[in-house]
Amino acid sequence: MSTTSTAAHPDPAAAAPWRRVLAQTLFETRAILRNGEQLLLAIVIPVIALIGLTRATFVELDTGGASRIDFLTPGVLALAVMSSAFTSQAIATAFDRRNGVLRLLATTPLGRGGLLVGKISGVLLVEVVQVTVITLTALSLGWQPDPAGTLPALICLVLGTAAFTALALLLAGTLRAEAVLAVANLVWLLLAVAGGVVLPADQLPGPMAHLALLLPSGALGEGLRSAMLHGTLPPWSVIVLLGWTAALGWGARRLFRWH
Length: 259
Prior knowledge:
Layout: H1 2-8, H2 17-34, H3 36-55, H4 68-98, H5 101-106, H6 111-140, H7 150-172, H8 177-194, H9 208-214, H10 216-230, H11 235-255
Helix pairs in contact: 2-6, 3-4, 3-6, 4-6, 4-7, 4-8, 4-10, 7-10, 7-11, 10-11
């Protein structure tokens, strides 16, 4: 009797923590890749920018002796990280917060910590897709990165993801969803144009060149260019990205409101 009852009514205990986080990670990943607007921002626009800037020879670029594709690919990868770790994450989290999803999930066995880990892991999985697509596109256009820069580039990508995810959570947890939608897209556009991402900071006009080096966008762009062109990772990029991650993470932890 006891055996039959147990078989008919399985143990309702929560799944193991890693299973809960994995399920949330896959959900976050699918949510981004199934959303047309976020998919456009995360993959389509960076790929179009890479192909367009590489083929558009009428656009003059100081590549420092490198080929256009070798010069542009690191910046486009940095742009892709910004789109997924910052813009997409900020908007998705803000609307989840407005709709009560965050408050609901925080009370489940997943918990607040599991929810945040799932969101960050989801961003990393999306970035794997982005890097794969952009890398294959760049290789088809003749990209020849420095093999010694693989590890430095991965370190830079992780640090950049941490900094921009912290910024995304800070915005999403403090502003109204509609405001986050506008601010996140505006900040992405400003950083893409004048933040030292696609173009190096030293090619920006006037004081913008000095400012860009202090921004997470400029540090990420410079770090990836140095890694993929020369096989090195500038200490300044690491310091800037770690500093922004610490400051923004502290702010998000103190100011984030779950509902």
